[in-house]
Each structure stands twice: as structure tokens, then as C-alpha cells.
Specification:
With 495 residues, the chain is of the alpha/beta class. Helices cover 38% and strands 20% of the residues. It contains 17 helices and 23 strands. The strands form 8 sheets. A 6-stranded mixed beta sheet has the order 18-19-17-16-22-23, with helices on both faces. A 5-stranded mixed beta sheet has the order 3-2-1-5-15, sandwiched between helices. The longest helix has 25 residues.
């Protein structure tokens, strides 16, 4: 029997998944690495630490599955988006990778956005933010010219890993779009933007579809990882799009509600529709001719972790918190939580926003706090859903993903708040699974991504239906949530 491997380069760890061609998990491995903060607002990682973790993850997955490198038919990739790996003319690193959490370019954003001007709505379909490749390169040109002048190649994080395994340079449409140097509308590099910003135009990688072949494992990489020399690799995708693929979210009308550390709604479209107010993002999807419209909120499962670890100071598993919240009625008996512990990006681009419990009374207990926190994350996503309605982006099928997909209460809150039946998959490592799907397509096992997802992504039998009374209650309370933030917005800047 043959297997495919998906490698996901995350922000804090790398995971490798081996699955058979029907999507059954055979083995998983992982390796971790730190984030370096050399000064306030900076965030860097050492790509050599990434490679060490990749080797550990690959070896761990092979060992867990009891397989050899020769059993692997092909390899796909997923990775943290937006970051920069800069190489010189000899293809050597010019320093640490600047990752998506980095905020050093914030001071230059006004000038960058002014220069980008009409291109944001005509080509990029997004506005540059700190931590994105175009912003970091613009900052380097202004503030570190001695490094910028030596750059000959720029890579997204997962593309560097693939380069080290195969020796081939390139990128895919999903990560290219996330650089904010790429025309998401036309799926090509936005050369006009390079001219306006005075950036090199010849340092950008050739762009391919996510499932296209991208070379094969070199002899050196085989010796270091346990993979077989000559194993084909495909270009892969940014982690958001890989996770959507791993959950089978590849058709127009399908939407994912992802609650991991952060939270997102992501809908698939067959046209490059975008929010002209730039509140939510539009990216290229792994499926040719399809795009992802995504509302990326900063606060998700991290709010529940904060409540458990920093407030309740408890070691209960999240499944126990979920059960406790499920014993509290919808609406938490008048308790409302504004979830902006880390500021917020969508639908309110407000770095000053903070969390608030509103309506606390003597009758409220721990379960009320837990439920209010879970509901607060969904109130914010319900606000995002209104933007989709404005854009005429529809949802015929809603799929839960992330940690909340394994939560009984949180899935019921999703169904009630968003007024949609909630489906979920049996997939555990969603981004790795998506990368494995891409590897299967690239190696000719399946004709296309839709066929591969049909064979490799298994849906759960349990569908969570909305409860009409809860739907009405949440619709009523949403206005209070909206008004509360509006009243606090100016006051946040005073704390």
C-alpha cells in the first residue's frame, strides 16, 4: 500500500502526517521551535530550527506508522503565511525569517498604502498590514538597505522548507496572494506595485497551482529525513487554504467556521469577490478558478484558554469546560463578553480594543463565564457574517473546524448564532490533511482536488441543527453586542 505525506510548518511547531490514499491516518510526528523577539514588536524564527523540526516530524511520522521512506508516494506542504525568508545569490540565508506576527513595518504602512492606492481594490483585493511580505520588504529597503541590497530570492516559509528538501525554488498561488505583492484578481505578480514602491522586480518566485509537481527529494534530504530519494513533492499551500482543503471546503457555497487559537469564517467563491471596505480578506484557493473570502479575527480559542489558565487557574480539560458551559442556557442569563483580549482585526480593525464582561450579577457562576466567553467569539463572527451578506456571498453548507469542531457546546452555539446546520469532518490534522490531498492530486491518484477530497475527507455522521429559540435570542442580543463595542471604542484609548 502507498501513502502520502502532508507537512505543515506552523508558527510554533511542524507536524507531518502520513495517510493512505483513502484518507486514513497512519502516523503523525512533530517538532517545535521558539519565536525570537529581539526587540519590541519584532517576531523572527530561525529557518534552521524549522528544518530540524521538519526532520523530527518526518522521522516521527514514519516511525509512528511503521513505514519506510519508500512507502511514501508523494509529499505536500502547508505553512504559516505572510512571512519572509530572504536568500542571497548563492541561495544562502540572509538572516532569520521575519514571520507574520512581526509588527516592525507598522510605521511605514501609511506610505506603503498610499503608494499602493487603487491597486489594493483593483488587483491585490486586500490592504497591506505589518507582518506581510510586501510590508517587511518595504521596511527592509528603508531601514536595512545593507541586507535588502543583497536579496536575490524571497520565499514564504513553507516554500523554504520545500526548497531544502527538493532544491527547487517556487511558490503557489495561495502563498503568493498572502505576500500582498500579488494580483489576487488575475493570479500574477503585481509588477506595477513593485515600480511604485521601488522594490526589486526579479526576486519573486515562479507561481504555480498548489497541487503541481515541484521536484523531488534530493539525496542529501533523503539521508537527513528518512524519506526516499526521488520522492515527488508538490508546491503546497498556505496553512489557511490547506486546512480548508483538508476539511473538504473546496466548492462555492461552502463556508468554514474555524475556531482555533484565533477564529475565522472562510467562504469559497468562483469569482474574485472582495470587500470594498477592506474589512475582510480575499485570497486565492487551492482549487483553480476559486477564491477564499476570509474574515480573520484575532480572538478565538485563546479567550477560553485565558479564562481557564489565568482567571479560573484550573487544569480541567476543555471538554469539561465545554460540558459545564452546556448546562447554562443560551445567553448566559444576561452575561455578555466582548472577546477582544488581543485587540481585533475583523470586523473592527481596532488594536486598542480589549475584553469586557458586561452584565455580571450575583447569580452568575463559573459556567456562565465559560459560556459567555464562547458566545462572545461567535457574536464577533456573526458580525463578520453580516459583511458576507453585504457582499452577496452565500453559505449553503457550514463546516466547523479547529478545536471547536470537537466541542459539543461550541458547535451548538455556532449553529444557533449563525443559524445554520453545522457539519464537521473526522479530520484531526486539517492543514496536514490538506497538504496530503494536494500530494495525491499532484501524483495523479485523483483527477482534481474535488475528487481527492471526496475520497480522502470523511464527514462526521452528526449534524448539529440550530435551535429556533436560541437563534431568536442571539439575533436580539447581537445589537447589544454591537452597541456595547460602539460605546467603548473611544474609551479603550483612555486605558
Amino acid at each position: 500500500m502507498k501513502y502520502v505525506m502532508g507537512i505543515d510548518l506552523g508558527t510554533s511547531s511542524t507536524k507531518a502526517l502520513l495517510t493512505d490514499l483513502a484518507g486514513h491516518e497512519a502516523g503523525v510526528g512533530h517538532g517545535s521551535y521558539p519565536i525570537r523577539i529581539p526587540q519590541a514588536s519584532w517576531a523572527e524564527q530561525d529557518p534552521e530550527c524549522w528544518m530540524k523540526a521538519v526532520k523530527q516530524a518526518v522521522a516521527g511520522a514514519l516511525r509512528d506508522a511503521g513505514l519506510k521512506g519508500e512507502d511514501v508516494l508523494g509529499i505536500g506542504f502547508s505553512g504559516q503565511m505572510h512571512g519572509v525568508v530572504a536568500l542571497d545569490k548563492e541561495k544562502n540565508l540572509l538572516g532569520p525569517a521575519v514571520i507574520h506576527l512581526d509588527q516592525r513595518a507598522a510605521e511605514d504602512l501609511p506610505d506603503l498604502r498610499e503608494a499602493a492606492g487603487n491597486l489594493m481594490k483593483e488587483q491585490l483585493l486586500n490592504q497591506p498590514s505589518a507582518g506581510m511580505m510586501i510590508s517587511t520588504l518595504y521596511w527592509m529597503k528603508r531601514h536595512r538597505p545593507e541586507i535588502y541590497d543583497r536579496i536575490r530570492y524571497v520565499l514564504s516559509p513553507k516554500d523554504y522548507i520545500r526548497f531544502r528538501l527538493s532544491g527547487e525554488l517556487g511558490t503557489d498561488v495561495t502563498d503568493a496572494g498572502a505576500t500582498l505583492a500579488f494580483s489576487v484578481r488575475e493570479r500574477r505578480w503585481c509588477t506595477e506595485l513593485f515600480t511604485r514602491l521601488g522594490l526589486y522586480s526579479d526576486i519573486w518566485m515562479p507561481v504555480h497551482e498548489s497541487f503541481e509537481p515541484a521536484g523531488s527529494v534530493t539525496r542529501q534530504a533523503a539521508a537527513e529525513t528518512g524519506l526516499a530519494e526521488g520522492t515527488p513533492v508538490v508546491y503546497g499551500a498556505g496553512d489557511s487554504m490547506a486546512a480548508l482543503t483538508g476539511n473538504g471546503v473546496v466548492e462555492k457555497g461552502t463556508m468554514a467556521c474555524n475556531i482555533g487559537t484565533a477564529s475565522q469564517l472562510a467562504a469559497v467563491e468562483d469569482r474574485p469577490v472582495f470587500d470594498r471596505s477592506m474589512r475582510i480578506q480575499t485570497w486565492c484557493h487551492t482549487v483553480p478558478g476559486h477564491w477564499v473570502v476570509q474574515s480573520g479575527a484575532l480572538n478565538g480559542g485563546s479567550t477560553l484558554s485565558w479564562l481557564r489558565d489565568s482567571v479560573l487557574r484550573d487544569t480541567k480539560p476543555f471538554s469539561e469546560l465545554d460540558r459545564e458551559a452546556g448546562e447554562i442556557p443560551a445567553g448566559a442569563e444576561g452575561l455578555l463578553f466582548i472577546p477582544y483580549l488581543a485587540g481585533e482585526r475583523t470586523p473592527y480593525n481596532d488594536p486598542y480594543a480589549r475584553g469586557v464582561f458586561f452584565g455580571l450579577g450575583m447569580h452568575h457562576e463559573q459556567g456562565h463565564l465559560i459560556r459567555a466567553v464562547m458566545e462572545g467569539v461567535l457574536y464577533n463572527l456573526k458580525e463578520c457574517l453580516k459583511i458576507y451578506s453585504e457582499m452577496h456571498v452565500s453559505c449553503q453548507k457550514l463546516i466547523a473546524s479547529g478545536g471547536a469542531a470537537r466541542s459539543v457546546t461550541w458547535k451548538q452555539i455556532q449553529a444557533d448564532m449563525l443559524d445554520q446546520p453545522v457539519y464537521s469532518t473526522e479530520v484531526r490534522e486539517e492543514a496536514c490533511q490538506g497538504a496530503a490531498v494536494l500530494a495525491a492530486v499532484g501524483n495523479g491518484v485523483y483527477r482534481d482536488i474535488r475528487e481527492a477530497c471526496g475520497a480522502m475527507v470523511r464527514m462526521s455522521d452528526r449534524v448539529v441543527e440550530p435551535i429556533p429559540g436560541n437563534v431568536r435570542l442571539y439575533d436580539e442580543k447581537l445589537q447589544l453586542f454591537h452597541d456595547l463595542y460602539a460605546q467603548l471604542r473611544d474609551m479603550y484609548r483612555r486605558i
